[in-house]
Amino acid sequence: MTIAETILPRAQPYRVLPGFGPTLGLTVFFLSLIVIAPLGALFAKASGLGPREIAALLLTPRVAAAFRVSFGIAFAAAVVNGFIGLLVAWVLVRYEFPGRRLLDAMVDLPFALPTAVAGIALASLYADTGWVGGLLAPLGIDVAFTPLGIYVALLFIGLPYVIRTVQPVLADLEPEAEDAALTLGASGSQTFRRVVVPPLLPAVLTGIALAFARGVGEYGSVIFIAGNMPGVSEIVPLLIVVRLEQFDYAGASVLAVAMLVASFAGLLLVNLLQAWSRRRHGG
Amino acid sequence: MSVELRDVGKRFNGTVALEDVTLEARPRELLALLGPSGSGKTTLLRVIAGLERPERGTLLISGKEALTLPPRERGIGFVFQHYALFRHLTVADNVAFGLVVRPRTRRPSRAAIADRVRELLSLVQLGDFGDRFPAQLSGGQRQRVALARALAVEPSVLLLDEPFGALDAKVRVELRHWLRGLHERLGLTTVFVTHDQEEALELADRVAILNAGRIEQVGPPGQVYDRPASGFVMEFLGEVNRLPCRVSGGKAHVGQCGPIVEASHLPDGCARAYVRPHEIKLLPADDPAGFPARVRSLSIIGPRTRLHLEQEDSIIEADVDRAVVDALGVAPGLVVGTQFLSVRIYPSS
Amino acid sequence: MAAERSLGESRIARLLLILAALALLALLLVLPLVLVFSEALAKGLAAYRAALGAPDTLASIRLTLLVAAIAVPANTLFGIAAAWCIAKFDVPGKSLLTTIVDLPLSVSPVISGMVFVLIFGAQGWFGPWLASHGIRVVFALPGLVLATIFVTLPFVARQLIPLMQHQGRDEEEAAIVLGAGGLQTFLRVTLPNIRWGLLYGVLLCNARAMGEFGAVSVISGHIRGATNTMPLQVEILYNEYNIVAAFAVASLLAFLALVTLTVKRLLEWRYGRELALTQSAT
User: Fold this and answer.
1) What is the DSSP string of B152-205?
2) How far is CA B301 from CA A59, A70, B252, C92, in A?
């Protein structure tokens, strides 16, 4: 029986569970192939153009209008969704009524419904001959084929984000705090404003940011109801498609990168908001 | 059936987990690894099991070099602190697991497996629980299933990681006795990790005390308690009063005018004196053999009295028989004489 | 769900709030859904069936199923592998990996399709090479599959990673010590513990894979009967004013969405605690 002193090399950490190498390899390979390489190609293509050409491309009236439409309407819709989402989340969490479970399930519909289906349904609904559009037309309100149509579509798409972000926070609120406020003499609405809303605010803002990020890049739900008139109701994704169809890959890439930068800013905002809420309210 | 570790060292990201650990678990022995959290005892157990690999040292299990062997080939059974039962399997399937996953050539027949499961479940007194799921069992019951599961593969060494850590006090004590009984019945070499010194002292044949990755002392419970090898061991096991003292010329002076104790093994300078609360004798204040102390408070705990005494800027706790307290008329504010029946001196650091 | 709690508001106020929420949801969510089925059946059941039976439409249904049948298993395999190495081991760069996995969710669908056109299109990186070998990626099945995989990549992984992280390694380590091999451990110990989260992820992945529009629109070339998935077919029919047919195909997709929602709900209801771990803001 030899007792050998075993000195193991530091380089190879010992892992009891098997499969690390293969699974990490597969993961990295897959991610490189599917995510990193394509996005890399995008940036490579966009950077192929010099700064002057990029500026020329981005600073046309048509492009500027498209960005205004995409970002502006997405923002407006997200903010309104913030209010609607808060209301719906409140009702779903705090009240019992027949059909509550069903309604709660329905909230996920925009997540699950294919965007093209939503797109044609909304277009038909709000067209001048549609169920809702027909009611609004005599009042002089045109929804379909105007920016208002884009707005409605983005309302549809963004609604679940706020509701689903707020619901768990609302459900976890400590009831004692509200009871304390009521015993101290606050009215219902005062309690709501001062005790309920502040801890919810980060969640609401996060939801709005998510809805905004989604709305900016949305294509399928918007493209049918939008009207797509350059300068008025044309969204950035459509601009990209137009350039692709003209085989202007470089131009399309520049637009795409500009959009991604904006989306990235949105993601960053979400993370900052969540960090702020964690600090402020203990997560 | 034995486990031998020599000069084992392990680091996690630069922090020392184990350092120069040399230890032996003798055949059929119940060895406790005792220490505060972070002392490395769980790491040591996992090194024996093969769930961690040390950077330095040797490990022999039943005489064979084991460091390069994967866990399944070491002949060990491991019981996790939180049981790690397979939650989607019944109790019987949990116990059978180690037998079911064996390669075809070594796998016993279905009937043989069922027999073994039955045998083990009755051994751990869960004979009727075979069809239940872990979620339906109490903590103590789950622990016994985990034990049965580990025993199913007939290990030569049994390793238990804080086996009773997650249970409440009463169940802990019951299971403690039960485990000792089981160990005597099976005669398996067992190493178990605990931070509860009472558990270690009561259960084990020998106790190994760890501190910051090093072994402070190994020995039978009586020995480590009566003759602790270091101040740490003395403090960790049982209650203790720590008093400053000065050593000069081979003699330790406890306090300014306290007792003078033999300390020929220590160099001159500062040191620490330890005396246990129940080794303090109370004398009347005027007895010359006693050193004065003022009584600050006393609490009656059953047949004993616990006293907080003030002596030369130190607070000493004494654990004294009620009769003595009554005889001396001890009350807060009174000055009494103290005599230390046993004092141990250790170096300062 | 929290039990009914109020701030002392009157019953009337509560009723008004509930009605307001109901009205908003009805207007925004329910109405479009109802319209889909209503328009599909506007000319009767026979017209509905005929629309679905048209050759181009049938081809689009087959194509959708085919693309999903490739993309979903691929992403499931990826999700399991990624969750395994991220959750059961200490990987440096864990958060980098999870961020990359999340990327497709924040990329506009049009861009998701476009990046593959950039690589495989006629003027893309591999364009000339592919042309000279007679391989079509863009405007053909491979392109559709790639774009779909990109878009649905995160779904399974995002469910499994936090779930497996939460479940820890103890059970797997116990199995290893008891003598099980790697694959045995995964099949017997890990898989049963993650099965509902896995099913949930696959469900969402599939719903998205079948319903994706923007990404496949860019890469498909809209070749009738050949490279149109169901959502694209919906677009073509609608743009041709073939309303009933467009909504007929849309109704199939809507039905799929309802089935997805129902199963999703069932899973959440029964295994809510497990799945709640993975519910981060989408």
Assistant:
1) HT--SEEEEESTTTTS-HHHHHHHHHHHHHHHHHH--EEEEEES-HHHHHHH-S
2) 87, 77, 33, 55
C125-134 burial, b at 16+ Cβ within 10 Å, e below that, comes to ebbeebeeee
CA–CA separation, A112 and A198 (whole Å):
31
Whether residues A216 and C108 touch (CB distance < 8 A) is answered with yes
Q: What is the 3-state secondary structure (H, E, C) of chain A?
A: CCCCCCCCCCCCCCCCCCCHHHHHHHHHHHHHHHHHHHHHHHHHHHHCCCHHHHHHHHCCHHHHHHHHHHHHHHHHHHHHHHHHHHHHHHHHHHCCCCCHHHHHHHCCHHHHCCHHHHHHHHHHHHCCCCCCHHHHHHHCCCCCCCHHHHHHHHHHHHHHHHHHHHHHHHHCCCHHHHHHHHHCCCCHHHHHHHHHHHHHHHHHHHHHHHHHHHHHHCCHHHHCCCCCCCCCCCCHHHHHHHHHHCCCHHHHHHHHHHHHHHHHHHHHHHHHHHHHHHHHHCC
Whole-number pLDDT of residue A139 = 85
Strand partners, B292: B337
Q: Return the domain boundaries, chain A.
A: 46-280
List the single residue in A with minimal CA-CA distance to C114: A244
Q: pLDDT tens digits, chain B, 349 residues: what are they?
A: 899 999 999 998 888 999 999 999 999 999 999 999 889 999 999 999 988 899 999 999 999 999 988 888 889 999 988 888 888 889 999 999 989 888 888 889 999 999 999 999 999 999 999 999 999 999 999 999 999 999 999 999 999 999 888 888 888 898 899 999 999 999 999 999 999 999 999 999 999 999 999 999 999 999 999 999 999 999 999 889 998 888 888 888 887 777 888 878 888 888 889 999 999 999 888 888 888 899 999 999 999 999 999 988 889 999 999 998 888 888 899 899 888 988 898 988 6
Contacting partners of chain B (3+ CB pairs under 8 A): A, C
Q: How many CB pairs below 8 A link A and C?
A: 295
Q: Could you tell me which chain C residue has the CA closest to the CA of B81?
A: C170
Instruction: Give the count of alpha carbons within 13 A of B264, CB side only.
Output: 0
C181 inside 8 A of chain A by CB: yes
Closest-CA distance of chain A to residue C62, Å: 17
Lookup: tokens for B137: 């069992």
Higher pLDDT residue, C228 or C279? C228
Within an 8 Å CB–CB cutoff, is residue A278 touching chain C? Answer: no
Does residue A123 contact residue C241 with C-beta atoms inside 8 Å?
A: no
- Angle at the Cα of A37 (from A31 to A38), degrees rounded to 5? 105
H-run or E-run covering B74: none
Neighboring chain C residues of B50 at a CB cutoff of 8 Å: 177
In chain A, which residues have their Cβ closer than 8 Å to the Cβ of B53?
8, 14
pTM exceeds cut of 0.90: no
CATH of domain A46-280: 1.10.3720.10
Nearest to B63 among A1, A4, A6 (CB): A1
Q: At what angle do helices B110-123 and B139-152 cross, to 10 degrees?
A: 140
